């Protein structure tokens, strides 16, 4: 399973070069991750009930083609790796014509909500990541 989030580029997301500012792509990806977590039934309150949170620790992003005001974009998110306390999501920003505008691998770590240190990911998250990753292979 992958989550799919459709957006329209707004005027406030455009920089002086007339295209989406590079920092906005990171925000788009964050929206996509939120959509994936919600679709997987792993929202913020669910994580807190497990005594944990997730934090992004690395992002490797490729900017492939500019995005402009008014364009329809789709943010696709799916799991690609699960470790002991970390996991990675593959994300793509795709234009209406079907071309990838940007793609990224985002690595997150599960942390204890109180102590704020890395902890082994809960089985509920691991099960979702493994099931989702296997569905896309």
Automatic annotation (TrEMBL):
UniProt keyword annotations, A-Z: Hydrolase
Record-linked SUPFAM superfamilies: Thioesterase/thiol ester dehydrase-isomerase
This protein's record includes keyword Membrane: no
Origin: domain of life: Bacteria
CDD domains on file: 4HBT
Coiled-coil stretches: none
Pfam families, per the entry: 4HBT_2 (PF13279)
Hydrolase listed as a keyword: yes
InterPro entries assigned to the protein according to its UniProt record, in alphabetical order: 4-hydroxybenzoyl-CoA_TE, HotDog_dom_sf, YbgC/YbaW
UniProt family annotation: Belongs to the 4-hydroxybenzoyl-CoA thioesterase family.
Protein name in UniProt: Thioesterase
Organism whose genome encodes this protein: Paenibacillus beijingensis
